[in-house]
Automatic annotation (TrEMBL):
<dbReference type="InterPro" id="IPR001650">
    <property type="entry name" value="Helicase_C-like"/>
</dbReference>
<keyword id="KW-0067">ATP-binding</keyword>
<comment type="similarity">
    <text>Belongs to the DEAD box helicase family. DEAH subfamily.</text>
</comment>
<dbReference type="InterPro" id="IPR011709">
    <property type="entry name" value="DEAD-box_helicase_OB_fold"/>
</dbReference>
<keyword id="KW-0547">Nucleotide-binding</keyword>
<feature type="domain" description="Helicase ATP-binding">
    <location>
        <begin position="25"/>
        <end position="210"/>
    </location>
</feature>
<dbReference type="GO" id="GO:0045943">
    <property type="term" value="P:positive regulation of transcription by RNA polymerase I"/>
</dbReference>
<dbReference type="GO" id="GO:0003724">
    <property type="term" value="F:RNA helicase activity"/>
</dbReference>
<dbReference type="InterPro" id="IPR048333">
    <property type="entry name" value="HA2_WH"/>
</dbReference>
<dbReference type="InterPro" id="IPR003593">
    <property type="entry name" value="AAA+_ATPase"/>
</dbReference>
<dbReference type="GO" id="GO:0005524">
    <property type="term" value="F:ATP binding"/>
</dbReference>
<dbReference type="InterPro" id="IPR011545">
    <property type="entry name" value="DEAD/DEAH_box_helicase_dom"/>
</dbReference>
<dbReference type="Pfam" id="PF00271">
    <property type="entry name" value="Helicase_C"/>
</dbReference>
<dbReference type="InterPro" id="IPR007502">
    <property type="entry name" value="Helicase-assoc_dom"/>
</dbReference>
<dbReference type="InterPro" id="IPR027417">
    <property type="entry name" value="P-loop_NTPase"/>
</dbReference>
<protein>
    <recommendedName>
        <fullName>RNA helicase</fullName>
        <ecNumber>3.6.4.13</ecNumber>
    </recommendedName>
</protein>
<feature type="domain" description="Helicase C-terminal">
    <location>
        <begin position="232"/>
        <end position="406"/>
    </location>
</feature>
Amino acid sequence: MSTPREVLMQQRRQLPIFSAQKQLVHEILTNDSTVIVGETGSGKTTQLPQFLRAAGLCRQGIVGITQPRRVAAMTISERVAEEVGVPLGGEVGYTIRFDDKSSEKTRIKYLTDGMLLREAMIDPLLERYSTIILDEAHERTINTDMLFGVLKSVQKNRAAQADVTSTEGEERAKKSRRRLGKLKLIIMSATLDADAFSRYFDAKVIYVEGRQFPVDVYYSAEPQQDWLDAALVTALQIHVEEPPGDILIFLTGREDIESLEELLLEKRKKFTPEMNDIEVCPIYAGLSPEEQLKAFAPCPPQCRKIILATNIAETSITINGIKYVIDTGMVKSRSFDSRAGVDSLKVVPVSKAAARQRTGRAGRESSGTCYRLYTEEDFYKLEDNTVPEIQRCNLSSVILQMKALGIEDVLNFDYMDKPPKLSIQRALEELLSLGALSPADGTLSTFGKKMAELPVLPSFAKVLLASKDFKCSEEVLSIISMLSTETDSVFVTPKSKKKEALEARKRFMSSDGDHITLLNVYNNFIQSKHSKRWCIENFLNFRALQKAVDVRRQLKEYTNKLGVGSSSCGRDLDEVKRCFITGFFTNIALIQHDNSYKTITENKICYIHPSSVLHGSKQPYVMYNEVVFTTKFYLRDCMTMEPAWLEELAPHFYTKIKVLNKPTMS
Ligand code: CDP
Ligand code: MG
């Protein structure tokens, strides 16, 4: 009998990357920067850090591996801790926003790209690290793109420092107690076009031989209107007709995933005794770690696993045993219309590159099949590659961070791909209007420095800091924590109990809008002494509320440090609402004749999102946190407000625009 570790070791030895260990380590040790390209599942993310550990790089400092996704950082570090044979949070750990499982001992650290940017703010030379691996570079998330430039310059500064130490002799080195070595950079990607990385980092590209079996691709004959239904029918057909092998279905997000899970479980109830069973495993950000790990565990014999995933399963994580892939061809994507100034979350078609990655997941262990729920003609209409996030997102958050990192000239920064100038200007204007930049020369203000320290979007940071003046820091902390749980909703609405769920929700609903409603939920949860039973009875997501408590504790540490102090406005909730206006004064919409709303800065026609407590009520004015586009533009997280507040609280903005003097029902 072999021990679990021996089994793991055997699995590791079979990974394609294993045979390349010597060459990889040699190249990495002889070069400052290296680009590694390898098929998804070849073992890059889990094995390379362990190779570097064996080569001694961990003795010189931490080996940090960035991940665009929180879920990937969590599940992969857990796996690696197991492989190394240490408890998670010891030698192997992870750090993501509001969740840190790392310690003094940690030498292999998985962290989100956003967290590494934050660390660079506090430690500009990233002194604790010997090596940084930028993983999933092909995803081109906004934070990874920022890290490209930032790390290139950290590497240069570290090299310069290392030179000083060696020329000025041991004395100086002793004085600084330890010698700061060079920073090694490794860029890892799952797609073949690594030329851009190679040029930008002046680095050699090493290809790791992958193992890919043929995958048959089938297309829909007709375009599908309802991809959930199409996915359901296809999955059941595979289950009934095809040989064993698990099914991976690519969906757009939690809502889709939960609906399909429910539909599948309904169908399962009607399975005849001679039919094999199914096990449905969802995987998306915001799922609890235990639930995420379920997708990785093998299911019993005579049972087929159906994994419902977002694009996280495209390249970030590999699940073994997949033989069938069902691709809806859709993805939830954030985009920013810099002309209109609207940031929106839309469900859009994937790129050809992403569709091919999805298909590839069916052929990792043997030949497989991929069902594309769109026509072949539509496939050829897809974009070749996904546009880097930096070219399609709101930049205010990263620009604030760049300024905090000491990069003042954000227009001429060494970007791998430049963002549109208009987006940069928009972001600078937003930061200026929030008071983060000094109006005289655009440098970071003292207030902006504080804003950058808070791990939330600039507008929320402004609200948190302003809560001191409005004497409502306790309320604001609760609301922002509730909005930061990374779950779509704290309200649970099972399809079979819609009426009861809605009834329960009424207990918390406030005519002031979603913010105060969330505050009511939070306060009642605290009163219930964090009771799970109370949550179930009230159709609330217990885990999201636990998370909110945890996030709040952490945010409070930040605000305490920044001198916000503790204050409460009691029943005078207008103070809370006014405080939110200081961060969201540009996000105001006015009601129109047909009960739609028009945003005042861009004159965009929007609707209050059905999930909002203000949905269906006619408010002359609403403030909203964000615009989401699905079939139309929806305003999410809405609050009622008084127009007079705008000129009072944001005079620099509203005396200029004077929109509110126009008749509202124009
Ligand atoms: O990074 P890359 O796509 O090259 O591969 P990886 O993430 O390092 O995965 C290597 C192997 O580890 C795959 O066969 C995964 O299925 C396995 N793995 C696992 O079984 N459980 C995890 N939690 C993570 C990875
Ligand atoms: Mg990987």
